[in-house]
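hey so i finally got around to running both of the ones u sent me last week. sorry it took forever, my laptop kept dying halfway thru and i had to restart like 3 times lol. anyway pasting them below in the order u listed, first the sequence line then the structure token line for each. didnt double check formatting much so if smth looks off just lmk and ill redo it

first one:
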Amino acid sequence: MKDYFLLQYTMTNRKLADWGINPFVAYVLMVVGFIFLSEYLYSVTEFAGYVVLVVALSVLTNTSETQRNNFLLIVFGNSKYRKIRIIENVCISLPFSILLFYHNAFIESIALLTVAVVLAGLSFKANLNFAIPTPFYKKPFEFTVGFRNTFYLLPLAYALTVIALSVGNFNLGIFSMLLVVFISLTYYAKPENEYFVWSYAVKSPQFIFNKIKTGTVYTTFLALPILIAMVMFYPLKADEIVLFTLISLSFLWVTILAKYAAYPNQMGLPEAVLIAMCVYYPPLLIAVIPYFYYKSIKKLNILLK
């Protein structure tokens, strides 16, 4: 069992070293970034606790993937497997639980740890046995795959909008719209095979433009019910709604550019740190977007000429 966690630690250090990052510096930055972003989240919305719970549960759910857990069960046996899963889930949920406890959400903190232990004994299939139809078939990959993996989160965002409008909470309505954009951002976390990039018969700038255009159109399509409802209920705040929409879409653009700035590798800590800095201070997008653009063009020129 000790060997398993030592192996995970070693693999993580090697991956960080491959990215050219000192592991110690990376761990310090992750801790500081977690504290910094969480405090910023609590300062901008009263629903920060719910966001923390959703993020924590989504991470925990990923550790319950059936194929992964079957492998652990075969290698370590039932007894050690249970201990590994419990330790793993508790370690993952502990920072979120401490954060909730610090902000006086005692029940939520204890409930999260309890759920983490319960999930240690459960496994979920990563893929469904049937294909969920999507409206994104004309522009495949990110939204086709992403939508099928996160379709159940969109009704949650729409339900939050209904609640926001029923109780007259404008901020909750904006949060529900931002949630939809955040869901779209996750679709760009995994890089596609180089063949799917090479197959586009266009220059690198045109490829990037098409990706940004597709992401903008599809994300707006998903958020459109919320935007229409918000403008109808808060016509005097239409300018604020449009402003929040444009800012949130700019984070979609910077995420797309960051993906291809790191391509064919997955986005690493440097890209994540720059995006996190933009979250804290959005005007930085003016500098970060061109930086990622030129870096992504340089990477894509290898495949697209």
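and the second one:
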Amino acid sequence: MAKCLLGLGSNLGDREAMLRQATQRVAAIPGCQLLARSSWHETVPIGGPARQGDFLNAALLLDCSLPPLELAAALHSIESQLGRKREIRWDARTLDIDLLLYDSEVFASPELTIPHPRMSFRRFVLQPAAEIAGFLACPVCGWTLSQLLRHLQNAPRYVAVASAHPAISNWLAEGLCRELGSPRLEALCHKLGETGDFPDPVTVESNVSVLGGPRQLPRQKNQELSQQLHPNHLYSQHAAVPVISACWLEASNSAASNYQSAVRPVVRATSSPEVYAERSASMLSPALMIVVEPESEKNFLKKLGGASTESQTNYSCPLQLDFDKALKCQGQGPVARIQADDPALVLQEAVAAIRSCWPELSVLSPEEFS
């Protein structure tokens, strides 16, 4: 029997009645035994059409003898029986059932990906899941569900964008700053290099034309910067927008020579969030890494309108690592991998990923952030 974790959600009609009915039908699937159900968690909608109602979310833990694809088919059948229609992406729905974990399996097909690719950074998934199965570990990142939830609650609000091409990561970082009203980390460090004092992140402009090369910060300054980005410092917990940076990761044997750079938005290979946090004392690590992997970089750049690679590179972090190797490291924390070729869809996915980490951002306009 495999330990299986499901996520349930509804934001149409009698949400609690719908989730109770779905739970009963899941428990009745042949070969499945319901072990636990979380309490109900009310959450704001993330992405999709405007003016949706709030969701009611829950998690179920099962023992299951069905193979993953058969279980997923049974869950989709329950969704359809209870009125789920898949017409508009992220639209309001009577019922959503996601297969989050199937033991420690890593599986990908056109019909199903496990673990769920967005599970590690979605607060509305992690809260009910950690309530009943916090001991379960994500087989991709290596952290338990409880550790992932604590990380999103306590990590400095810093998001790093990565791509194999610097123009793509910089474009997305700039777009996220516009959408969320966020400052750029590069701008914060540039001002620090000029004055020696930390500016207020809320007042820093998002756009800086040229940074004039990387700045190296002493360990103490890097610790202070990390404290500034903590949601309980300068911001209120409610309105703390994340700071955004652009970096790119590409194959390079000389990456070790750059390791003394104080600001290093890279995937870290550590064994746990506790070790991750300890190492963050001497370097600033992201709460979320967003990785853009278009099928064709050349076509993607054309769709961006021919942005100048040279100017984009001046704005990017100089650290380089082996891209594929870094992304396969366990212990790296939440990573949102976006593999779309449409820039508008990539930006939409990235904004939704950030708001999934910090749902309170979804109920604020950029003017309210400061």
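quick thing i noticed on the 2nd:
The chain has two domains: 2-122, 155-369.
anyway thats it, ttyl
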